[in-house]
Write a structure and sequence with these properties.
Family: Belongs to the sigma-70 factor family. ECF subfamily.
Protein name: RNA polymerase sigma factor
InterPro entries: DUF6596 (IPR046531), RNA_pol_sigma-70_dom (IPR014284), RNA_pol_sigma70_r2 (IPR007627), RNA_pol_sigma70_r4_t2 (IPR013249), RNA_pol_sigma_r2 (IPR013325), RNA_pol_sigma_r3/r4-like (IPR013324), WH-like_DNA-bd_sf (IPR036388)
Number of helices: 19
Order of helices and strands: HHHHHHHHHEHHHHHHHHHEH
Structural class: mainly alpha
Largest sheet: 2 strands, parallel
Strand content: under 5%
Pfam families: DUF6596 (PF20239), Sigma70_r2 (PF04542), Sigma70_r4_2 (PF08281)
Number of strands: 2
Oligomer: single chain
Keywords: Coiled coil, Sigma factor, Transcription, Transcription regulation
Radius of gyration: 25 Å
Distance between the termini: 55 Å
């Protein structure tokens, strides 16, 4: 009998393997059975088999191949029981015969040959799974949940905890998403031609939504949720490898790498927020900055080769790069940032982009210039419940010495935010204004 400590270590190894291999496993099975829900069930069955067998037999040398082989066997049994898809049975049987020599007997030479033959197909399957999980036919919340479940390998409990929603809600979203994909007969394929650009934007949106929820949590008591940032970065890097010629993929990776480089400096000893202009830049991760700048350079090269300008994610990455390159807040090129926001507004007209441009104008040309733009956004319906509008307006009013008006704006922003850490920060600024002090400068929103 395996000692308890060894069993615990094996279970940890299985969990790590699942996080790494689950997306490829589900992708490969979906290609074979053409049913996303069934593919996930088969993958889960293989996981259960590993949990039952590996504590006694040890972790195989090639655990991913073991899981795939086990899942394919179960697929054959299921297809036989349903008495259909005889041709598929033959295909799966041939694949098993070829793979068992390497995966099950673990003959190194045979297994390496199998890997070499199937590597490209696995990557193609994974890319198909990305586009399926992020299909626009699904609601945004469903796309996010399904992506984290299938590509991130997160459990419904982990997703629910990250988004502060009941586990049953996440489970329902995932179930409905699979049903919607099946009913809509969404093909398991990578879109081509003009459809690719539209579908790719949906994929990038999902990845960035995951990152943003980790970088600036919308609710709860934590300013950040680093695990979501890490998951989004991992997905972005995978996507960059799968679609190496797409400029905006590299633009998004650049943006996330550079933003993530600030993570250690964004919170104080007690978890309180530390805003951009007050951060210790010595705590920024310069490895991530270099990676981000390299990804931005790659995006710029690809865009230039196509004869096009930078896309929205690459422009935001260029803005983030302005901060990353500045050794001190005073060295930040705010005029360039304001220009980049103007370009971004041309590509992606949005009141939020205009709000950020107002911040940049204030930093470049004085608070009056920023306030003039921000005031024009006061009646914008889409910003009615957006706490950063009164936050930015309060900061600009405080800089102009209009402290009573600033206090009211900070109090309104505190009422609107659902994040406990941010609420405390805003109430502190309101109290400082009430005492005749401007308090700590809010500065630009730390998303840029």
């Amino acid at each position: 009998m395996t000692p308890p400590d060894d069993q615990l270590e094996t279970h940890r190894a299985i969990e790590a393997v699942w996080r790494i291999e689950s997306a490829r496993l589900i992708a490969g099975l979906t290609r074979l059975v053409r049913d996303l829900g069934l593919a996930e069930e088969l993958a889960q069955d293989a996981l259960v088999a590993a949990l039952e067998q590996w504590p006694q037999t040890g972790v195989p040398r090639n655990p991913g191949a073991w899981l795939m082989t086990t899942a394919k066997r179960r697929a054959i049994d299921l297809i036989r029981r349903r008495q259909r898809l005889e041709q598929k049975i033959t295909e799966l049987g041939h694949e098993l015969e070829n793979e068992q020599a390497g995966a099950v007997s673990e003959s190194d030479a045979a297994f390496d040959a199998v890997l070499e033959d199937t590597a490209d197909r696995i990557e193609d399957d994974l890319l198909r799974l990305v586009f399926t999980a992020c299909h626009p036919v699904l609601a945004t919340e469903a796309r996010v949940a399904l992506t984290l479940r299938l590509l991130g390998g997160l459990t419904t409990k982990e997703i629910a905890r990250a988004y502060l929603v009941p586990e049953s809600t996440v489970a329902q979203r995932i179930t409905r998403a699979k049903r919607t994909l099946a009913e809509a007969h969404v093909p398991f394929e990578v879109p081509r031609g003009e459809e690719l650009a539209a579908r790719l934007s949906s994929v990038l949106e999902v990845v960035y939504l995951i990152f943003n929820e980790g970088y600036a949590a919308t609710a709860g008591d934590d300013w950040m949720r680093p695990a979501l940032c890490e998951e989004a970065l991992r997905l972005g890097r995978i996507l960059a490898g799968l679609a190496p010629d797409e400029p905006e993929v590299h633009g998004l990776v650049a943006l996330m790498e550079i933003q993530a480089s600030r993570s250690a400096a964004r919170t104080g000893p007690d978890g309180e927020p530390v805003l951009l202009l007050e951060q210790d830049r010595g705590r920024w991760d310069h490895v991530l900055i270099r990676r981000g700048l390299a990804a931005l350079d790659r995006s710029e090269q690809l865009a230039a080769a196509r004869g096009s300008g930078l896309g929205p994610y690459a422009l935001q990455a260029a803005i983030a790069a302005c901060h990353a390159r500045a050794r001190t807040p005073q060295e930040t090129d705010w005029r360039l940032i304001a220009t980049l926001y103007q370009e971004l507004a041309g590509l992606l007209p949005s009141p939020v982009v205009e709000l950020n441009r107002g911040v940049a104008l204030a930093m470049a040309y004085g608070p009056e210039a920023g306030l003039e733009l921000v005031d024009r956004l006061a009646g914008e319906p889409s910003l009615k419940g957006y706490h950063l509008l009164p936050t930015v307006r309060g900061d600009l009013l405080a800089k102009l010495g209009r402290l009573d008006e600033a206090r009211q704006e900070f109090e309104r922003a505190a009422d609107l935010t659902r994040n406990g850490r941010e609420r405390a920060l805003l109430l502190g600024r309101a109290a400082a204004c009430g005492q005749g002090r401007a308090g700590r400068s809010q500065g630009p929103h730390d998303q840029a």
